[in-house]
Design goal:
Helix content is 17%, strand content 42%. The chain has 496 residues and is an alpha+beta fold. It folds into 3 domains: 184 residues, Lipocalin, CATH 2.40.128; 140 residues, Double Stranded RNA Binding Domain, CATH 3.30.160; 91 residues, Beta Barrel (Thrombin, subunit H), CATH 2.40.10. The strands form 5 sheets. An 8-stranded antiparallel beta barrel has the order 17-18-20-21-22-23-24-25. Strand 15 and strand 16 form a beta hairpin. Helix 3 runs parallel beside helix 5. The longest helix is centred in the last third of the chain and has 19 residues. The protein is flat.
Length: 496
């Protein structure tokens, strides 16, 4: 995600910004097509099944003092709550399931249990924090030159890395049947001005760093949890227009099937083992489609543009929402892993990948200390954002910056106000728009978090989005678009 920026920074008001809704599907344009029934057809209970209910218990810490002080058990559980709930899954209050928690602990010890309490959930997630440690390193002052021969000074600084790892287990209820283990892990890094060579760090700063690493660990694996609990609905009807088809499914927005979501259509094939006589079921994917604008609370129409694959779909086949990382997020995960490897084998000397942002030049401008601000009034950052499978150009124009800063729970912060501008050509002509951005820059982690403000110029059917990312030494501001599965990321460079 890259480093997947911790969800502690996520803004809740980010929504879709795309022109896809300007060309909606019209039901009257499509003609009915007969569907062959699958065998066996789903039961009434399967079709009417409500959204899954999940109780998420705080993972055990097992005496790790670092994890206890940072409350990593609570942080992991809260992060899981946020991401799994995006699938439409009902999250059960863990405080009312203490008996179930004791039975789960017994099941993990003995390998079996007999839970006879109330049926409050369909699944349970538990686990343990297996690693939580902090590495620190003093890096002496140094100099380096770019390709043009320009010299830059890197001041002495302390580098801190918080490592968090946990093992999380999913159980099916009420039988307490073990289903799956998912390992989560992440490392969070910051640099600070040194107060000597020992690089001591305040407890509050340690706790913040560990919580960010825990949030990042969950966010890196969120699509694995989301796909496990993805909502499921059954195919009821097909209509077609030329090579395009739309399929009506038995659930809609109330169960997490929202317009522009990606879904996969599956067929369940049953057969009998000729040697044992046992029945076997095999699930296989038919095609990937998109939830159209025709989505109600209890039904939705899935658009499929592959005619050959659409012809294979049967009455009673099922659809599941599909979650994945965007290309920006995956690429930045790779960059973060490379940086971590370089940092591991470096002796602390100045390198481009590890040089603090505040020590390098950005389009001729430099900041004075490691806690400097790379954003200045009147700057223009140009690049692109990716929404609904389309990459479009954008400009982020900086209006004003609080250069002094102030203390927050996440460390020093600087307020930054900007304007998000976009322009592109669509079927309806030239589309332009702009809205305000309000955010905070955290110099210790070089992160910038923008939440959307009021529209300045709004095209029809467009919605604002937030930006959440990091400023790197090469003058790039890039990252992800929070709280929006349809928008994958953005990348900008300082133009002037």
């Amino acid at each position: 995600m890259k480093k997947i920026w911790p969800i502690i920074f996520t803004t809740g008001s980010a929504l879709l910004l795309s022109g896809c809704l300007s060309n909606p599907v019209k039901l009257s344009d499509y003609s009915a097509r007969q569907l062959i029934a699958t065998d066996p057809l789903p039961t009434k209970q399967e079709i009417k099944a409500d959204r899954a209910r999940v109780v998420i218990f705080e993972p055990k810490i097992n005496g790790n003092k670092v994890a206890t002080k940072a409350k990593l058990d609570e942080g992991v559980a809260v992060a899981l709550d946020e991401h799994i709930s995006e699938t439409g899954t009902e999250i059960i209050d863990r405080s009312i399931a203490q008996t179930l928690k004791k039975e789960l602990q017994l099941a993990e010890i003995k390998g079996k249990s007999e839970y006879t309490g109330p049926n409050i959930a369909d699944y349970a997630i538990t686990g343990k924090i297996t690693e939580a440690n902090l590495d620190s390193k003093f890096v002496a002052a140094s100099q380096w030159q770019n390709e043009k021969g320009e010299t830059y000074n890197s001041p002495a600084h302390c580098k801190y890395t918080a490592n968090v790892k946990a093992s999380l287990r999913i159980y099916k209820l009420p039988a307490l049947h073990y289903l799956k283990t998912i390992i989560i892990e992440d490392a969070e890094r910051i640099s600070k001005d040194p107060k000597g060579t020992k690089c001591a760090l305040k407890q509050d700063d340690k706790n913040t760093l560990f919580r960010e690493a825990a949030n990042g660990a969950v966010k890196k694996t969120r699509e694995e949890f989301q796909n496990f609990f993805a909502p499921k609905a059954y195919v009821l009807e097909r209509r077609a227009k030329e090579d395009d088809s739309i399929f009506k499914i038995s659930k809609g927005k109330a169960n997490g099937f929202n317009p522009d979501d990606s879904v996969k259509l599956y067929h369940l094939d049953t057969s009998t083992n000729p040697l044992t006589g046992e029945a076997n079921a095999h699930e296989y994917e038919i095609v990937t489609g998109t939830i159209s604008n025709l989505a109600g609370d209890h039904h939705a129409w899935v658009l499929v543009e592959d005619k050959n694959a659409a012809d294979q779909v049967k009455l009673g086949d099922y659809a599941k929402a599909f979650y994945e990382k965007g290309m920006f997020e995956s690429a930045m995960n790779f960059v973060e892993d490379v940086a971590a490897t370089a940092d591991q084998y470096s002796g602390g000397g100045a390198t481009k990948v590890n040089t603090p942002m505040a020590a390098v030049g950005v389009s001729g401008r430099t900041t004075s200390t490691i806690t400097g601000v790379p954003f200045l009034a009147s700057q223009v950052w140009e690049g692109s954002y990716y929404c609904n499978k389309v990459t479009r150009p954008l400009q982020v124009r900086i209006k004003d910056v609080d250069t002094k800063g102030y203390d927050t729970d996440l460390g020093l912060a600087h307020d930054v106000n900007a304007v998000f501008q976009f322009e592109h050509v669509s079927r309806d002509g030239n589309i332009t728009g702009a809205f305000n951005l309000h955010g905070k820059y955290y110099p210790e982690s070089q992160r910038m978090v923008f939440s959307p403000g009021r529209w300045i110029k709004r095209p029809s059917n467009y919605y604002t989005i937030g930006l959440e990312g990091k400023v790197t030494a090469d003058g790039r501001f890039s990252g992800n678009i929070p709280n929006n599965r349809n928008c994958r990321g953005f990348e900008t460079f300082l133009k002037r």
